[in-house]
Amino acid sequence: MTGSAPSALRPEHPVARPLAQLVAEFGLESRGDLDGVEVTGVALSSAAVEPGDLYVGVPGRNAHGARFAAAAAESGAVAVLTDEEGAAIAADSGLPVIVTQDARAALGAVAAWIYRTDENAATLFGVTGTNGKTSVVYLLNAILGQLGVVSGLSSTAERRIGSTAISSKLTTPEASELHALLARMREEAVRAVAIEVSAQALTRHRVDGIVFDVVGFTNLSHDHLDDYAAMDDYFAAKLELFQPDRARRGVVTVDSDWGRTLVERSRIPVTTLSSSAGGDAEWTMTVVDESVDHTEFVLEGPDGRHLQTRVPLLGWYMAANAALAIVMLVESGYDLGAIAQALDRDGGIDAFIPGRAERISGETGPVVFIDYGHSPDAFLSTLGALRKVTDGKIVMVFGADGDRDTTKRTDMGAIAARGSDAVVITDFHPRYEDPAAIRAALLEGARHAVPDLELYEVPDPRAAFRKALSLAGEGDVVLYAGPGHEDYQEVAGERIPYSAREDARLALREAGWL
Ligand SMILES: CC(=O)N[C@H]1[C@@H](OP(=O)(O)OP(=O)(O)OC[C@H]2O[C@@H](n3ccc(=O)[nH]c3=O)[C@H](O)[C@@H]2O)O[C@H](CO)[C@@H](O)[C@@H]1O[C@H](C)C(=O)N[C@@H](C)C(=O)N[C@H](CCC(=O)O)C(=O)O
Ligand SMILES: Nc1ncnc2c1ncn2[C@@H]1O[C@H](COP(=O)(O)OP(=O)(O)OP(=O)(O)O)[C@@H](O)[C@H]1O
After folding, report:
1. Atom 5, ligand 2: residue with shortest CA distance
2. What ipTM, to 2 d.p.?
3. Which residues lie across from 306 on neighbouring strands?
4. Ligand 1 centre distance from Cα of residue 225 (Å)
5. In terms of CATH, what superfamily is 358-510?
6. Helix (H, G, I), strand (E, B), or coil: what is residue 194?
7. Model pLDDT, residue 466
8. Ligand 1 contact, 345 CB (< 6 A)
9. How is this chain modified after translation (predicted)?
């Protein structure tokens, strides 16, 4: 992280608005005296409250947020917005209470009103899909920078404005944080923002109050079946982004059947992109050269428009992500020729994506990648890409999330086994699950798929990485999938400091390879 490191990115010069006006404009019910009460911000967590905030109390898994109204008042909140149940709970907080049927559903529009985010808004890009969201957001940000456009981003890894960044807790922030971020970006003269939009964000009203100029879809594959009953429900959540109340135009990657279904069911104008020849799309991306360090591709569109460039990243899928970013820019009004010129000048897209097939190794020894892949399809893409660019052995290290979609573990094990020459199963974020049981499911998937696989179980991730390194030599590849950019391991409710990237560098130094 560079620049200052604030804990939240909120406007530095918020303009106060009368709370009574909010109540009148939204037709809300209020209890207590609103006379002279002015609001400058909004927070969904008492810990995030700043003086002048409206505190929004929503029911959660563990508690009703209204229980924290008194704590919010101590931090300077001027009122509470909550539902009927919350209003009763917050009654003795000493704050005026504004009542609505569903405070989470109201939050987006309320936050947009408080921060006036629809005034002089930047061009907004939204990216969704199971895999590739973070990558496309970084690629958009990189190309915009190369075009000389001041841009910002919101991703799983970080929220960033220029050189100021904060790390992210959620893929998509809660609406209160997102509108504050947009207001801060406006203060910093940001003209384009790339935002990662998770399915959960759509289901939980996190991008309410925003109409994206262009939205992009990467792909859909098995994930999050703890949050959604079936793939159809998961898809339906993503489909919401491609509706007129959320976006003006869309770009859809149609490499999968889900992409084609999205085109059929979307109610906004959409442009299609394919990364397979004869893919029947308006735009086609074709890889023309690839190595462990870069992927070069040609992008061809309607009316003979075309561009050839490269990404300093591994794999056809990163070229597909880059192509999606470029077509999204074109759909928002940027000229393809101007994009091509800027990229030619710089020798390609100048992107660094933290923890996405990030190469940690130096010039000697095995090539080591730390990746954020934690779904079967992500494993398939990365291992497929690696096999194409290496003649050596592929050693893969990974674990699986505890308390998250358990149904993907067998497939993760099987895909890793089929795509690697040796596999080391370790612990990822066990959370409240028994880590041995998580490993057992992965081991079972791997063993069943390739019975004679060279397979190891090493619970401690530091030891697991060193085991993998010991199995590899010059010309081989070690892929450590899961931790990506993260700097912690979550065990039984605690976040224990652990950065796979830093530890891998240390291990490479210990081995004399760095
Ligand atoms: C499981 C889940 O969805 N949890 C979300 C939920 O928390 P919760 O229901 O556990 O909240 P709670 O502890 O009961 O507290 C209720 C309310 O009181 C507030 N509170 C609580 C304690 C306190 O001291 N003060 C206080 O104000 C909380 O902020 C909350 O608003 O409400 C919180 C804010 O209101 C969310 O931040 C939190 O997201 C958690 C962190 C989460 O992990 N969500 C996952 C499912 C998620 O959204 N994931 C996607 C992943 C996408 C991808 O992988 O592609 C994402 O977009 O990140
Ligand atoms: N277009 C793609 N198709 C398939 N796999 C991909 C694609 N892009 C990235 N991946 C794989 O998925 C992993 C996660 O990539 P990325 O972080 O960009 O996705 P994401 O959608 O943001 O995921 P998350 O929501 O979990 O942060 C990568 O490390 C890589 O293994």
Report:
1. 378
2. 0.93
3. 300
4. 18
5. Mur ligase, C-terminal domain (3.90.190.20)
6. strand
7. 98
8. no
9. Carboxylation is probably crucial for Mg(2+) binding and, consequently, for the gamma-phosphate positioning of ATP.
